[in-house]
Design a protein that fits this description.
Distance between the termini: 9 Å
Number of domains: 1
Helix content: over 70%
Number of strands: 2
Shape: globular
Largest sheet: 2 strands, antiparallel
Strand order of the largest sheet: 1-2
Structural class: mainly alpha
């Protein structure tokens, strides 16, 4: 029997530091546009991780993760404009605000499952942009500016704004992934998987399914809040048009393409929804094709359909099963 030894928390942190240093060095050899795309990938990565935690591990379906991103983004922008708090502190506030909203929604939707829960989160996603338009402090349709500024001190003249943006978004993504992996390997993560697999059996084993679901909603929403503030930093603006239903669907698509049950697939999903549309958009513009506006979305949708048909749980799950079979044969 082949035994798989999972890395310890210390090894994960060491690997995270190595990845951070690697990205820091690599950012000096990449052009500004690719650096900006890297910041986008990092923001979407955290958003996809939030879906993987909620749906892949807890089994709760969400169609409104973009709404929790909006809560985090607006919270960060408000505290900057109204109270002048440092930018770095707003990231923590975004996480806390989104987590609180997630706890409220989780408690309210605690008795809902399947399509009913999906419908509730969908309604929340539809209502948040409309609410932002109606409340003056949120800036209406024009939204609120959210600029992370320049690198501090003497680095302001040597580090470009895009590079500074990438460093912040990448750091947030690395921290989020390390925390998410540790959570899923903890007792909390095992409870989530137990409730997802069989709620009644989990209850007989001493697990409180309702509490587990609310906790999963709260944690997932906190991750979404961090994704939202990173996403707004790449845009420089927090507005209702940035958090439409299409954002929630795009994140869900990335989660499915990467593998809804594995955090490791979130990076692949983020790359797909950011890089592939850009590549095809460039090709269609060079070829002067009239479908340049629609082709990227068509390609991503086609990849989603292929993934559902050939690997319903995502390519990463298919690779995981393939490795497992090879280990058993070995």
């Amino acid at each position: 029997m082949h035994v798989v030894h999972k890395p310890s928390t210390g090894k994960r942190i060491t690997l995270a530091i190595f990845v951070a240093l690697l990205l820091l060095v690599a950012s000096n050899f990449v052009d500004e546009y690719r650096i900006f795309q890297g910041a986008q990938v990092a923001a979407y990565l955290v958003g996809i991780v939030s879906i993987v935690l909620l749906t892949g591990f807890s089994g709760q379906i969400t169609l409104g993760q973009g709404a929790f991103m909006a809560v985090g983004s607006y919270s960060a922008a408000i505290v900057v404009q109204e109270f002048g708090l440092p930018i770095w502190l707003t990231f923590f506030i975004a996480v806390i605000a989104a987590a609180l909203f997630g706890a409220i929604i989780g408690i309210s939707a605690g008795r809902l499952t399947g399509p009913y829960l999906a419908g509730a989160t969908l309604a929340f996603a539809v209502g948040i942009p409309a609410l932002a338009n109606a409340i003056p402090i949120l800036g209406g349709e024009q939204g609120l500016s959210f600029d992370i500024g320049y690198a501090p001190g003497k680095y302001a003249d040597t580090v470009s704004p895009y590079k500074w943006l990438f460093w912040i978004c990448a750091l947030c993504a690395i921290i989020a992934v390390v925390i998410a992996v540790n959570l899923t390997s903890s007792g909390m993560g095992r409870e989530w998987r137990a409730v997802r697999a069989h709620e009644t059996a989990a209850a007989l084993a001493g697990i409180n399914p309702a509490r587990s679901k609310v906790l999963a909603f709260t944690v997932s929403s906190g991750f979404a809040g961090l994704a939202g503030v990173s996403f707004s930093a790449t845009v420089g603006l927090v507005s209702p048009s940035g958090f439409t239903l299409s954002l929630s669907f795009l994140l869900l698509t990335g989660a499915i393409l990467g593998g809804i049950s594995h955090i490791s697939g979130a990076l692949g999903g983020a790359f797909i929804i950011v890089i592939i549309p850009t590549i095809f958009e460039m090709w269609t513009e060079e070829a002067s094709l009239g479908v340049a506006t629609y082709l990227p979305g068509i390609i991503v949708s086609a990849l989603l359909l292929l993934s559902i048909a050939l690997a319903p749980e995502g390519p990463s799950e298919a690779l995981h099963k393939l490795r497992h079979r090879s280990h058993r044969k070995g």
